[in-house]
């Protein structure tokens, strides 16, 4: 089915509607070991996002369609999926920007993590890597009796990597991660960067030793898929390079 934008008559102030076909990858291990594609043609509006189309399918056509979402505003990171072959947050992509008049929009689960059902993957391997890099402030000595002060320049040093929402769009777009899933992956390194370059933190040596592992930063091949995928605009590849440089400076 071929959809066309702006084909429906509108009156002043009315948002124009258009037809869109969503081709969704379905998988239900209770019914079959095989995944399959399912198409739904919907009437949507210029303000609708891919998440709205998934809601429409679930609420009006097939309640069994399974996907994660929470905030619907690009904050919680729970609805990362492959949309037209690129990792995106379904709540941040407008349908009209995907040229629905040119053909179906494909929606699949992110790659490299086991699919549980439809668009839901098992995030545990992803969070296991995240936990390993110790994503918390490490300090020694007595509890401070006043704030741990930091200059604006020191705060700026790791500002970019504080923006991570742990959506896994970067890690699951990385071909190195796809190969065996053992690589720590970009998101874990981004979150290590956030503490390695924090002037108040005292766990840098430990974190760098962890990432010096054979499945650590040296497996990055600077492919840039991660940077391209990040919905927060984090310079992921740059952060990985900075962690590599910190490691070289310490000469592990
Ligand atoms: S770095 Fe970006 S893409 Fe990766 S998990 Fe964080 S927010 Fe998502
Ligand atoms: S639903 Fe929270 S980021 Fe999309």
Automatic annotation (TrEMBL):
GO biological process terms, semicolon-separated: respiratory electron transport chain; tricarboxylic acid cycle
Cofactor binding comment, as recorded: Binds 1 [2Fe-2S] cluster.
Cofactor (UniProt): [2Fe-2S] cluster; [3Fe-4S] cluster; [4Fe-4S] cluster
Top class in the EC scheme: oxidoreductase
Any one GO molecular function term: metal ion binding
Gene3D superfamilies: 3.10.20.30, Alpha-helical ferredoxin
Annotated 2Fe-2S ferredoxin-type domain residues: 18-113
Annotated keywords: 2Fe-2S, 3Fe-4S, 4Fe-4S, Iron, Iron-sulfur, Metal-binding, Oxidoreductase, Tricarboxylic acid cycle
Pathway(s): Carbohydrate metabolism; tricarboxylic acid cycle
Annotated ranges, domain 4Fe-4S ferredoxin-type: 154-176
Keyword Lipid biosynthesis: no
Entry's EC annotation: 1.3.5.1
Reactions this protein catalyses: a quinone + succinate = fumarate + a quinol
Protein family according to the UniProt entry: Belongs to the succinate dehydrogenase/fumarate reductase iron-sulfur protein family.
PANTHER family: SUCCINATE DEHYDROGENASE [UBIQUINONE] IRON-SULFUR SUBUNIT, MITOCHONDRIAL (PTHR11921:SF29), SUCCINATE DEHYDROGENASE IRON-SULFUR PROTEIN (PTHR11921)
The protein, known as: Succinate dehydrogenase iron-sulfur subunit
């Amino acid at each position: 089915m071929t959809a066309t934008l702006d084909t429906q008559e509108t009156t002043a102030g009315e948002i124009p509607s258009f037809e869109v076909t969503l081709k969704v990858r379905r998988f239900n291990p209770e019914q079959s070991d095989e995944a399959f594609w399912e198409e739904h043609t919907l009437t949507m509006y210029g303000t609708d996002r891919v998440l709205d189309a998934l809601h429409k399918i679930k609420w009006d056509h097939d309640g069994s369609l399974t996907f994660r979402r929470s905030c619907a505003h690009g904050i919680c990171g729970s609805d990362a999926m492959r949309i037209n072959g690129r990792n995106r947050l379904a709540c941040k992509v407008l349908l009209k920007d995907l040229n629905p008049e040119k053909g179906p929009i494909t929606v699949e689960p992110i790659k490299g993590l086991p699919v549980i059902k439809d668009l839901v993957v098992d995030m545990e391997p992803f969070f296991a890597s995240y936990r390993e890099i110790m994503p918390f402030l490490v300090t020694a000595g007595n509890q401070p009796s006043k704030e741990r002060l930091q200059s604006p320049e020191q705060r700026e040093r790791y500002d970019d990597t504080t923006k991570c929402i742990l959506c896994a769009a970067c890690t699951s777009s990385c071909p190195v991660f796809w190969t065996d899933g053992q690589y720590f992956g970009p998101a874990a390194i981004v979150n290590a960067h956030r503490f390695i370059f924090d002037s108040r933190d005292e766990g840098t040596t430990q974190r760098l030793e962890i990432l010096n592992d054979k499945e650590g930063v040296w497996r990055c091949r600077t492919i840039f898929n991660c940077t391209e995928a990040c919905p927060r605009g984090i310079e992921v590849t740059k952060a990985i390079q900075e962690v590599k440089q910190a490691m070289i400076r310490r000469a592990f």
